[in-house]
Design a protein that fits this description.
- The protein is of the alpha+beta class.
- About 30% of the residues lie in helices and about 30% in strands.
- A hairpin with a 2-residue loop joins strand 2 and strand 3.
């Protein structure tokens, strides 16, 4: 399994607008592509003074699946024009990590974060 990680930052004033864009347009657009080997996308958010940092983590079965999503220059970040208009700054390149170990707490179950 491969995790594709990307960071973007907005002003505090634009954070809710950007999050709504991700949830209503960008993520559904990614899912609609139905890329073989793409499993899920997660959104993380944290305040940093006057800015808000966003992290996306995409789960893929393999690097071939990542390339099917992003192309041969697979490290290039996927940042649609609407997102660029809101973001104060963002990673131009995504990082990719191979999952080497996964353990879960006994009896623990996955839970969806509140909207």
């Amino acid at each position: 399994m491969i995790r594709r990680i990307w960071h973007g930052w907005t002003s505090a004033e634009d954070a809710d607008t950007y999050e709504a864009l991700l949830k209503t347009e960008i993520f559904p657009g990614i899912l609609a592509k139905q890329v073989r080997g793409f499993r899920r996308i997660e959104l993380l958010r944290r305040p940093l003074g006057d800015e808000v940092e966003f992290v996306t983590i995409m789960w893929f079965d393999s690097m071939d699946a990542v390339k099917a999503f992003a192309g041969e220059d697979y490290e290039t970040a996927y940042v649609p024009a609407k997102a660029r208009e809101i973001l104060a700054r963002y990673d131009a390149r995504s990082q990719h990590y191979e999952l080497r170990e996964h353990q879960e707490s006994p009896g623990g179950e996955a839970r969806r974060a509140p909207s």
